Amino acid sequence: MSNNVKSDYDYSRQTYYDLIEKGRESLEDMIEVARQSEHPRAYEVLSGMIKNISDVNDKLMDLNKKQKDIDKNDDIPQVGSTTNNLFLTTADLQKMMITKDNEKLVDVTPTE
Q: For residue 70, how many C-alpha atoms fall within 13 Å in the half-sphere facing its CB?
């Protein structure tokens, strides 16, 4: 894995951790505001915050899955494609079907 990919992964992972932690702290504050105000909008905002924190958790898990896929692909050796073409005539095929004792393995002569 290249240094840039590793660095980007570490940075993204740390950013997600920071967002989740700040979201959890804010969530505690918002719970207190919603309890004290008992206002429907406060509960609506609280619900949105819970969803956003959940989404960031999902993104963190997706980031880990992508990292595993990158690591797995780095372990697979890259192989180029090989094309082999073989052109044979019927006579060439018949010669190949003769044994060492000059006996034909397949008789291709027409019978009447």
A: 14
pLDDT in tens, 59-69: 999 999 999 88
Measure the CA–CA gap between 2 and 39, rounded to whole angstroms: 51
Helices (H), the chain: 3-37, 40-75, 90-96
pTM to 2 decimal places: 0.58
pLDDT digits (tens, 9 = 90+) for 6-40: 899 999 999 999 999 999 999 999 999 999 999 99
Token digits for 93? 């095929």
Tokens 């019978």 -> residue: 111
CB 34 within 8 A of CB 43: yes
